[in-house]
Design a protein that fits this description.
The chain is of the alpha/beta class. It is about 40% helix and about 15% strand. The protein binds uridine-5'-diphosphate (UDP). Uridine-5'-diphosphate binds near residues 74, 77, 135 and 142. It is found in: Cytoplasm.
Length: about 230
């Protein structure tokens, strides 16, 4: 195995599948299968799920809402998604713990760094809900922050595209894919990997990022085994 402990970041939108909104349970189950497979290989798996399929603070602000209030709503959306993923994993018999940055005792544990690490050591899949617990941040920042806190070897950012391109491949057919990039190259070329707060956190803490296509069966396992999939930023 190329990695002992990983942090997998899934966007909220990835849970929609082909729907326009909300959660497609078949999609969530597919992800759960992929996660279970790597967990069974002994990889310690922590996950951060976004909330964009339900609510985004920034979009709500544009329609007149108070930004902080809207961001808290966005954080609650990530907890809903996290519960869906937890449910899917448990359906497959995977032990999980959902740790939330905002206390919700009836449905999940509060986030405690040492407890998160203990769960990982015991082979449980840990899902971090409610982002960082702070407005004006994103779940990419939560992914970077938690990965650093738990000393993950890498952040795996599962997306719909199979890596980082010179331009948006869904809009520009001439865009070409990078296999490797340094943090400096990403700054210089002004590429969009994660938001800048998240990206800088990874850079300053020497935490590699791999952007890859999570929707392709077996990709997660291939990555874990050390295959060159997606784009590595190091
Ligand atoms: N959010 C926040 N602080 C955090 C993480 C998330 O305020 O630490 C809010 C923010 O409003 C964001 C929403 O939760 O728009 C959903 O998260 P995000 O947009 O990162 O989800 P994704 O794009 O990955 O689905």
């Amino acid at each position: 195995m190329a990695y002992k402990r990983i942090l997998l970041k899934l966007s909220g939108e990835s849970l929609m599948g082909s729907q326009q909104y909300g959660i497609d349970n078949a999609m969530v189950l597919q992800y759960a299968h992929e996660i279970k497979a790597i967990q069974e290989e002994g990889v310690e798996v922590a996950i951060v799920v976004g909330g964009g399929n339900i609510f985004r603070g920034l979009s709500a602000e544009k329609s007149g809402m108070d930004r902080a209030q809207a961001d808290y709503m966005g954080m609650l959306a990530t907890v809903i998604n996290s519960m869906a993923l937890q449910n899917a994993l448990e359906t497959l018999g995977v032990y999980t713990r959902l740790l939330s940055a905002i206390k919700m005792e009836q449905i999940c544990e509060p986030y405690v760094r040492r407890r998160a690490i203990r769960h990982l050591e015991k082979g449980r899949v840990v899902i971090f809900g409610a982002g960082t617990g702070n407005p004006y941040f994103t779940t990419d920042s939560a992914a970077a922050l938690r990965a650093i806190e738990i000393k993950a070897d890498v952040v795996l950012k599962g997306t719909r595209v199979d890596g980082i391109y010179t331009a948006d491949p869904e809009k520009d057919p001439t865009a070409t894919k990078f296999e490797h990039l340094t943090f400096d190259e990403v700054y210089k070329r002004n590429l969009n990997v994660m938001d800048m707060t998240a990206f800088t956190l990874c850079d300053e803490n020497n935490l590699p990022i791999i952007v890859f296509d999570m929707n392709k069966d077996g990709n997660l396992m291939k990555l874990i085994k050390g295959d060159t999939i997606g784009t590595l930023v190091k």
